[in-house]
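If your schedule permits, I should be very grateful for your opinion on a structural question. Please examine both parts with care and let me know of anything in them that strikes you as inconsistent. The record follows directly beneath this note:
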Amino acid sequence: MQDPRGLFDLETERTDFGSPVLLYSLGGFVDAGSAGRLLADHLVESLDHELVATFDLDQLLDYRGRRPAMTFSRDHWSEFSEPFLQLYVLRDQSGQEFLLLQGPEPDFQWERFAEAVRLLVERFGVRMAVTFHGIPMAVPHTRPLGVTAHASDPTVIAGNEAWMGEVLVPGSVSALLEFRLGQAGHLAAGFAIHVPHYLSQADFQDAALVALRSVSALTGLSLPDAALEEAAERTRADIIREVGDSEEVARVVEALEQQYDRFLEGRDHQSLLAGEEGDLPSADELGAAFEQFLAEQTGDGPTPPR
């Protein structure tokens, strides 16, 4: 392995952040409802922050697989939406400092990247690393969102109900980071927020709110939620209006409610993951009206600040 320190540039000489928590959100894998991106963007926009380190994406990103946007203005290229993978230090509402790693998931050199993050964890005395994202589930938006919690030391998430047993899933850099940090003796954890599968392509702020509260409860960080709550209220109103305007959509949501309630009552461990075989409604059943709603709600979101 090449020296992992060649993957990043430090932007500060500080090393003492008071045993901080490290939060990380790496886009590119599953993030239903944009839960992880929405929360990471919200934290950077809402809290004082400083740049700590920048990763060299030319070594990590497949630009042809995820082509950054460029703007053509009449007769010349006027703008390149350069992607960034950066580490910030932020201060929560009580003044406590914590770290946030935000940007696209690396396509290459996963092990070297994981080792680079481990070096930064040890350099800054990180006490816990926590990730968060959304996963699509066959659940209705009218019920409380579930959470799948996981950790290198399961005792730290005691009390969080397990929604599934042992499964084999495609890997991600976020999962590998948790695994490698745990192997190195560091505490790492994560939250997967259960997002209604028919809203998985939309910006669903309720999922980001659940992620925020899960992170706060685990870490003790005092994180602001007012802006997310306001955006969530607007989205809820839009969803209620769309459901009310379509009998087909209303029937599918009602079927999901019944399925969800039976699952809770029976605890028969039937999977609620979207896409499983069975009689669960699929996203296609929501019809053209809801597809239009999703298209109107979908967006790439703001570019992370430099």
